[in-house]
Amino acid sequence: MKAIKSPVKSLMVACIAGCLMTPAFANVTEANKNGRTQPHVEQNLSQIIVKYRNDINYSATTASVGGATTVTPLQAQRLSTLQSVAQSFGASFSVKRQIVTGGWVYRSSVPMKPAQMRALAAKLAQSDRAIEYAEPDYIRHAMYVPTDPMFATAQWDLQSSATQPGGLNLPGAWDLSLGKGIVVAVLDTGYRPHPDLVPNLVPAQNGVAGQYGYNFISDPVSARITVPIGAQSARGYDALDKGDWVPTTDTICPSQAGNDSSWHGTHVAGTIAAAANNAGVIGVAPSAKVLPLRVLGKCGGSDSDIADAVAWAAGLSVSGVPANTNKANVINLSLGGTGFCTKTSAAAFQMAMANGTTIVIAAGNESIDAKISSPANCPGVIAVASTSITGGRSGYSNYGGSVAVAAPGGGFTNASDVITSTLPTGKTVSTDDTTYGTMAGTSQATPHVAGVVALMLAVKPTLTPAQIKNILISTARPAPANCPGCGAGIVDATAAVKAAGN
Length: 502
What we know:
- There is one protein chain.
- This protein is α/β, with parallel strands linked by helices.
- The protein has helices at residues 73-86, 114-127, 149-154, 171-174, 220-223, 264-273, 303-313, 343-354, 442-459, 465-475, 493-501; strands at 3-5, 10-12, 22-25, 45-52, 64-65, 68-69, 93-98, 104-112, 131-136, 183-188, 214-215, 236-237, 289-294, 301-302, 330-333, 337-338, 358-362, 373-374, 382-387, 405-408, 419-422, 436-439.
- It has 2 domains: 21-37 and 144-501, 3-Layer(aba) Sandwich (Rossmann fold), CATH 3.40.50; 45-136, Alpha-Beta Plaits.
- Helix 1 (73-86) packs across helix 2 (114-127), helix 6 (264-273) packs parallel to helix 9 and helix 7 packs parallel to helix 8.
- The longest helix has 18 residues, at 442-459.
- The protein starts with a strand and ends with a helix.
């Protein structure tokens, strides 16, 4: 990543400058009709288990009539205590049975939220010294297992850390959340209509069928959009990626001359929210929605366009752009350049965060201290370093005190040490929007974290950007391999989502 100067404006070059692409996989069409697409999260509860100290296990000898346990005088006294506590929760209880552990099961007259049942159990235990413990009688379900075929064969980055040292530890998190109801804005090169991604794209406001997001690139040349005579901006409905290739004879950004189209935004978006649809790959938050905002075109994208897109994504008013009716809860910025945080970027991020939107940014791919990588070095944002399949810091990844956490981004230690996601083919224009391929970079690490944030917010929507950052830091696991300057460590999706729900 590097800053590019032109006679008319300062351009930001995406992290794609440090991303290596490998040939795309053939389209995968295998399906499994038995796969579930929603996790079993905590549901309302109707029972509580109470274990009394020095109690006798009556379960094998207690008489019952019509399936109901006979209530002894002692049990009636215990039930009276429970009823007294339960009154403040708007419930009453009946004795159901004693189980093999000696605990007694009581059934509520009304279903209760898990948090209420936990509070009642704690209050009951405090009210009676004879109680050894009291706890909700939780409902359990089969664990969520993706049926998307490439999850098991190509997505090491999403696996449990117990079996894959560099994995994000996602399977346990998916039993709690899939990100439903959360919107993640991807400020990048736009999107291509990949069938594994389209189900989760936010439609373009006032656009037509098949259009998604918004184009914030104002320069027609960079956007590759023909505008009417007299028009000064290419902005408008639909963030379709028209390719960011640069001709070999280009004079605007000669340092990038000869570069092919990256389809970077589609790869990033797929990592966040490729659908759970029994085909291809699966995203970190497969039930979240992606709001694609095109800010990077030929030669990159300007700070001014990116700042407007950040504010608009967060639900703020931007002159000349219709109000955003799909406010983003999270913004992913897999872009940057060297230098200090500009006042423009800092102001836009502060506005967005003050409006409740979390900002996740790539630390950069120059193998330097991220304090000179912008906008990752801006205050309050979550800067992400990249780790390899072994859990060590990727050789190209920036590092240092500006980094909050690290996540899988690929490290090229072997042929598998890259990130697989939705990736069209075509050196200039797209020739096939249905294929998959690999990249590596902090650009790929960042959407892993943005996806985890979506999972967290789906569990607890009231979390603030500061709280989210603190949870990610406090629950991160130590890197299993050498990872100096990787912040708090590798994001642990399961631990972060569990902590978010507490």
